[in-house]
Amino acid sequence: MLKLPNEFTAKYRKLLGPKADQLFAAMNDKEPKKAFRINALKQKQDIGYALSKPVLGINNAYYGQVSGSDPEWVSGMVYSQEPAAMFPAQIAQVKPGEKVLDLCAAPGGKSTALAEQLRGDGLLVANDISSSRTKVLRENLERWGVTNALITNESPARLAQHFNNFFDKIVVDAPCSGEGMFRKNPDAVSYWSQDYVLTCQSRQKEILAAATEMLRPGGELIYSTCTFAPEEDEQIVSWLAQTYNFEILPITLSNTNCAAGNPDWADQNPALTNTVRFWPFDELGEGQFVARLQKPASSVITKAKSQRQKRKREKASTRHLTNQEVELIAPVLKPFNLPSALSEWSTRCLVSHDHVFLPALTTNIAHLKILNNGFELGLLKKNRFEPSHQLAMVLSQVEQKQVLELNQPDFAAFLHGETLRGQDKKMQGFILLSYQHLIFSFGKNTRDGVLKNFYPKGLRILKKD
């Protein structure tokens, strides 16, 4: 039984009236709903999950539970995500070729959906202020097979110093009081208070102030939270409209059970009914609030000046491939069908500290904390080239022949980090590995049938099922 704070129940009885009992009952008596999205960037393949209960309003999304040791997850074919949290990225309606920022991106649910909409054309900057969470963000985007993402670990204010009036669309899934996640994460109840709600509101304004600097004139801002609090929802949207003259745009969702925002909970602006709310008692998922706003076409917000700091001159850390290095890499790539993103790899790739990568962006990124720029082909070592795990995830976007299908015991052993023996000797060198016809890694097959393990140590499953 979830024990809700008295201050919380009193607040929502006042705001919701009779519907408050529905909210409290749903938070106490209903199990959190679990769902997943299927990766449209990957080659069409069958998955083992039931697809009988779609999440209405979201492309390729279904109710069901995903395990981190399943081939569907390991191969990047699915992403486990709370169903209501799928809507901000869907509402963004990103088009290929656009420049998109996911400002509070970790762990990556919205970023993977935005990247899927871009389909490798355009730019996704996925940022999070937490260094530990940004590492998880990187893993999820790599698994998803994203080729055009710049992953950064910066504060919004510092990021704004590099991307003034730059992005076509910005998604801000803001840190919040988390009221909408109480039944999924009961620990969130323990740190809730009305003072904490107001602290979150202040932090949200700081984040959004930086976002307004980075959005181009006429660009769109998608603002979302997982809280019910009007202070963090309608009142924040009102503040954006009043302070920056943003227009609150309508949101159209077909076959979706959601409620309109409430002008009475803010400044009576009727346009607040264009925002949407998801309540747990509506049976879609957990609590969520989403607003879609547009920056005035004539508005150019000048970025805040940063304090100048003396910096030592840095030697150029990136360079193009030499002819000799191209000759090392080409034989490794030759057995595979390359997706269009790799069609000009020999001329477009850069090298940094022996890492070969295809950059998503080469300007405006000096002195940023970057975890990944574009995608990594692999690592140059002495007289050889070792392909990256990210390359395996990208190659699975198109049909491949250099693939070895493993059985269940060998799949589990490989994820555990073991070398396999007695494998097919017909394919030599680096090969793609699959289980249930889902590509999940590179291996290196030797002439005597030993399959060397190239599954990243940080992803290995230490305990086999």
Automatic annotation (TrEMBL):
S-adenosyl-L-methionine binds at C104, A105, A106, P107, G108, G109, K110, D128, D173. Keywords: Cytoplasm, Methyltransferase, RNA-binding, S-adenosyl-L-methionine, Transferase. GO terms for biological process: methylation. Residues 12-296 form the SAM-dependent MTase RsmB/NOP-type domain. The keyword Cytoplasm applies. The keyword Chaperone does not apply. InterPro entries: Methyltr_RsmF_N (IPR031341), MeTrfase_RsmB-F_NOP2_cat (IPR049560), MeTrfase_RsmB-F_NOP2_dom (IPR001678), Nol1_Nop2_Fmu_2 (IPR027391), RCMT (IPR023267), RsmF_methylt_CI (IPR031340), SAM-dependent_MTases_sf (IPR029063). The active site is at C226 (nucleophile). One of its GO terms (molecular function) is methyltransferase activity. Belongs to the class I-like SAM-binding methyltransferase superfamily. RsmB/NOP family. PANTHER family: 28S RRNA (CYTOSINE(4447)-C(5))-METHYLTRANSFERASE-RELATED (PTHR22807:SF30), NOP2 YEAST -RELATED NOL1/NOP2/FMU SUN DOMAIN-CONTAINING (PTHR22807). This is Methyltransferase domain-containing protein. It comes from Lactobacillus panisapium.
